[in-house]
Amino acid sequence: MNAPITSPALTAKDFKSDYKPVWCPGCGDYSVLTAVTKALAMLELRPENVAVVSGIGCSSRIPAYTTCYGFHGVHGRSLPAGTGLKVARPDLTVLVASGDGDGYSIGGNHFLHACRRNVDLTYIVMDNHVYGMTKGQPSPTTEPDWSSKLAPGGTGVREFHPLVIALASGANFIARAFSGDPNGVAALIVEAVRHPGFSFVEVLSPCVTFRPEQRGWKESARPAPVAYTDDPARAARRLMTDDGFNIGVLYKGRRAPFAGLPAAPTHSLADLEGGFRL
Amino acid sequence: MKANHSSVSVALAGSGGAGVMTAGNMLLEAAAAAGYYGLMTRTSGPQIRGGEAAAMVRVSTFATDAQDDRFQVLAAIDWQNVNRFATELPLGPESILIGDQAHGEPPEVFTKTGARYFPVPLKQLAGQVQGGWPNMIALGVLAGLMGLPAQALEAAINKAMKKGVEAGIAAAKLGLAQAANLDGFKLKEIPAKSSRWLITGNEAAGYGALRGGVRFVAAYPITPATELLEWLSPALTKVGGTLVQAEDELASINMALGASYGGVPALTATSGPGLSLMIEALGLGVTAEVPVVVVDVMRTGPSTGIATKSEQADLNIALYGLHGDAPHIVIAPNSLSDCVAATEWAVGLAESLQVPAIVLSDQYFGQARAVVDVPAFEKKSFHRAKANSNGQPYKRYALTDSGVSPMAIPGTPGITYTADGLEHNERGTPSSQSGDHLAQMEKRARKISQLDPGDAWASIEGEGDVALLTFGSCTGPAREAFARARAEGFDARLVSLRMLAPAQPAKLKQALAGVKRVLVLEQNHSGQFLRYLRSEYELPGEVKSLRRPGPLPFRPEEIYREIVRP
């Protein structure tokens, strides 16, 4: 968070565009959109100094629903696009939005390397354990016995554990949020943006269309029983053993973020030519 | 021995650790110091370290980036596996072989060419100098055979060696003395020396990128593009830019797009396998209208192919690889030094038209090092049209006459928008309506089709009713073949295309007016360039395809024969 405050603070409404989302009624992503706009207002940012970058999927439609600069790229590549943008323009606040298919499946490799690269950006994944846009196929976080047309009887493949992977890969901030509590999500996003380096916010965001049973998440989600730790070993033990419904900041690291563009040139092009000159 | 050669080609071969590349580079430096032009190419076995290798050095009184028909000298520190390079090292009865008896006789594949063998005790001579090495003896022998002066050799050794300079010079002088006993191939005196660079094609492309304004590069290591990135990494830092090593090529191109969306001109460099991975994101660049440049240093394909050797077989993917109708730019440098201007031009076109551009270099240019005349740069002014708020709703994809719509750069208030790979309307709102698709498609096509590249689209030399069409690194040997034909009073037209997309049919038609016979020269198996020409252009008269896959380069002689054929 390093954009200058040039005008009086805005409200959440100022960050919401007039586009009507394509999401189904009841989708958890509406609340995430609300939370993002609230967080940006709380951070006293201006829309022009924030970029929201995404890939493909239901959740990845979020950039245009904000009044910020948006980049809606190709499937799975939101993190590289966001990384390039933040490295080239360290003055911007960069939020990268994704879903469990976009972020953990097709974009899985970028997730690992974004965590270890530790560029100062915030990665918000709306996880609903299903591919919604393509109408109900299992994703990496889907339970192995969840039956679908593509995998009748279930995939039989164990779930991906994004928070553990993030920790092991070097993410500097790890939080879990639940879209049923937009104010809570907003508070976590604020903290994530303020924390230097790669901040990862996994948001449980129900898909009421293809996973109606996820309405029950509001009963399961609860504040994490203990405060966050900065000790990766302790964090690993907690993340490995929790049931996936502990909400809050779970880990805050102290790694220095990746450096962006240097402040100023030290050489001219003619100086570089000197290296070739005979 | 008369100094009557205008070009001498030598190869120095040996197994890993023998120092053939080190000696080859010093020979090239010595030739440059003596005022000659020079070219060094290299070949090696598949080993990561060690294994047989050969440095091929051509020294000439004229600028060229082509290999000659034959090598006058093949010297070997040892002969282990050197026979594997036989097709790449053509010799003739006028050629000589230099080798150390201690390592046995030269392989028959070389002696049967009629080349004469002169043994030189490289190892024993090296033993006479404390800290002397056989490669430095060989360096002296080769320099002596060309008639390079001792001072030039000393200067080159001084420049290249960090330690052991005196031993190096002493050993090289022993080699020079050996050469005095042999019939050599003395070079003519060189006329007045022009202002020159010693540069590889990869460095040239990197420098062109910086000249074009690129300040962000993301890339994944791949042979033979890696040196381009290794040159750019520190160079970018010096000019206020940066290079990010990405986790794969999917990340490289998307990082570049992200940076460019942020207003910083961006590039990535790769080879065929990487370009294949980048194709989807290039389509995003087309639709979202985000400038980006990819330098493809082509190697033999498909798949991993021969990673270390050259081929011009990525033309199809560069032109047609993107799904959907995706107008974009494809530029091919047609000399090693043109890698500067061609890449700079590609960056300028990408920026000014808000479109992806692909630069088709190849391993031959990329990894060859040559003495070149300092290129004359045109003062071209390309820039990205940037938007500012005028109080009206901002239309990122406004349907302008030129097809180019001013782009909002993040940080600019009042005109925020979302760049989108989804089809959209003028405002950028995703749209699945046929009218928006057609209008935006025509807008994107218009900005490319209205582009007038002026004379830069091709280099054209000569007159006559025979024309040769080519592109890229085939141009060097073609130029040399044309010079020979012209010297014998046979003129013909050489048209080397630099702008491959968009095609320039009107300009080629004019260039080929009156032509009765067309030769199409390219280094790939299926005739990709010929097929492209057939689909985009009208070719007059009789058309003949001259093609073969990599890695063997075309030799001037074989092109010459086709030009002058009755």
For this entry, give a set of tags.
heterodimer; A: 278 residues; alpha/beta; 8 strands; B: 566 residues; Rossmann fold; 4 domains; eight-stranded mixed sheet; seven-stranded mixed sheet
SSE layout:
The complex is a heterodimer of chains A (278) and B (566).
Chain A (H helix, E strand, L loop, with lengths): L28 H14 L7 E5 L14 E4 L5 H11 L4 E7 H7 L1 H10 L4 E6 L34 H8 L3 E6 L3 H13 L4 E6 L12 H4 L1 E2 L8 H10 L4 E7 L16 H5 L5
Parallel strand pairs in A: 1-2, 1-3, 3-4, 4-6, 5-6, 7-8
Antiparallel strand pairs in A: 5-8
Helix pairs in contact in A: 1-6, 3-4, 4-5, 5-8
Chain B lengths: L6 E8 L5 H14 L3 E8 L8 E8 L12 E4 L19 E4 L8 H4 L4 E4 L2 H6 L6 H13 L3 H11 L4 H16 L15 E5 H12 L3 E4 L6 H13 L3 E4 L3 H13 L4 E5 L1 H17 L3 E7 L16 H6 L8 E3 L6 H16 L2 E7 H5 L1 E5 L44 E3 L13 H16 L8 E4 L4 E6 L3 H13 L5 E5 L1 E3 L3 H7 L5 E6 L5 H9 L5 E6 L8 H9 L2
Helix pairs in contact in B: 1-4, 1-5, 4-6, 5-6, 7-8, 7-12, 9-10, 15-18
Describe this protein's structure:
The complex is a heterodimer of chains A (278) and B (566). Chain A is α/β, with parallel strands linked by helices and 278 residues long. Chain A has one domain (27-263): Rossmann fold, CATH 3.40.50. Chain A has helices at residues 29-42, 78-88, 100-106, 108-117, 162-169, 182-194, 217-220, 232-241, 269-273; strands at 50-54, 69-72, 93-99, 122-127, 173-178, 199-204, 222-223, 246-252. Chain A has an 8-stranded mixed β-sheet, with helices on both faces. In chain A, α6 (182-194) links the parallel β5 and β6. In chain A, α1 (29-42) crosses α6, α3 packs across α4 (108-117) and α4 (108-117) crosses α5 (162-169). Chain B has 566 residues and is an alpha/beta fold. Chain B has 4 domains: 7-180, Pyruvate-ferredoxin oxidoreductase, PFOR, domain III (Pyruvate-ferredoxin Oxidoreductase, domain 3, 3-Layer(aba) Sandwich); 198-373, Rossmann fold; 385-451, no CATH class; 454-564, Rossmann fold (3-Layer(aba) Sandwich). Chain B is 35% helix and 19% strand. In chain B, the strands form 3 sheets. An 8-stranded mixed β-sheet of chain B has the order 6-5-4-1-3-2-14-7. Chain B has a 7-stranded mixed β-sheet with strand order 9-8-10-11-13-12-19, sandwiched between helices. In chain B, α10 (272-288) links the parallel β10 (266-270) and β11 (292-298). Chain B is globular and about 85 Å long. Chains A and B meet through β1, β2, α2, α4 and α9 of A and β7, α7, α8, α9 and α10 of B.
